[in-house]
Amino acid sequence: MNEEEFWALVEGTISGLGCNEMAYEVEEQLKVLGPTAAMGFTNRFHEVMDRLYTWDLLGVAYILRGGCSDDSFEYFRAWVVSLGREATERALADPERFGLGIDLGPGHEFDVDMDCEALLHAGPSAVNALSGEYPSRANAHPKVPAGEPWEENDASLRARFPLLMANRPTR
User: Fold this and answer.
1) How confident is the model at residue 124 (pLDDT cuts 50, 70, 90)?
2) Which residues form the domain of 89?
3) Could you tell me which of 58, 87, 129, 166 has the fewest CB atoms within 10 Å of its CB?
4) Per residue in 2-25, pLDDT tens?
5) Full-model pTM
6) Which residues pair with 146 in a beta bridge?
7) Is residue 159 part of a domain?
8) What pLDDT was estimated at residue 112?
9) Nearest-angstrom CA–CA distance, 7 and 9
10) Is 108 within the bounds of a domain?
11) Could you tell me if 122 and 14 are in contact, meaning their C-beta atoms sit under 8 angstroms apart?
């Protein structure tokens, strides 16, 4: 599955749906498209998730969520993907401004938790339903986020993300 097909599938399922419903729709569409498409979607999803695995985006998630474990960061990145291509590209290009301007637009409901764990399972579940096996990753997950690390303290985060720290939401 090429990148255009991947994003068309993601964006074709996001209008007005919550994460669980969206993931269900993606899985159902992949079952119709067949095992090759389901595996292609799964591989492309991993590629996008790996690109989003950066210290800067982790910092944004940490600030917005009031902390962020490894699992929470995975769910956050899946949530970014669930917003579509444009939002994902904004998150990659300028994570701090992405965090400041989270606006899902018409037809989308703001997910306070910024979590879309269910989307992690859509591709693999479709592959399993079609083949009886869960797919292995084509490439290993990166061991550490890309970019420059930051420290878990307000001073470090304020220096790295001044706008977001000054305007962070209260939870």
Assistant:
1) very high
2) 3-166
3) 166
4) 999 999 999 998 777 789 999 999
5) 0.90
6) 54
7) yes
8) 55
9) 5
10) yes
11) no
pLDDT of residue 108 exceeding 90, the answer is no
Contact between residue 145 and residue 55 where contact means Cβ atoms under 8 Å apart: yes
CA 35 to chain centre: 23
Residue 48 lies in a domain: yes
Helix (H, G, I), strand (E, B) or coil at 146: strand
Give residue 166's pLDDT: 87
pLDDT at position 91, please? 96
Helices (H), the chain: 3-11, 19-33, 35-51, 55-65, 70-82, 85-93, 95-100, 117-131, 154-160, 162-166
Which of 54, 42, 119 has its CA nearest to residue 81?
119
Which phi and psi (to 5°) does residue 131 adopt?
-120, -15
Residue 51 lies in a domain: yes
102 touches 61 (CB < 8 A): no
In 13-150, DSSP assigns E strands to none
**Amino acid in the structure at residue 90:** R
CA separation for the pair 51, 157 (Å, rounded): 22
Q: How many CB atoms lie within 10 A of CB 90?
A: 17
Q: What is the pLDDT of residues 26-83, one digit of tens each?
A: 999 999 999 999 999 999 999 999 999 999 999 999 998 888 999 999 999 999 999 9
Number of domains in the chain: 1
SS3 category, 131 = helix
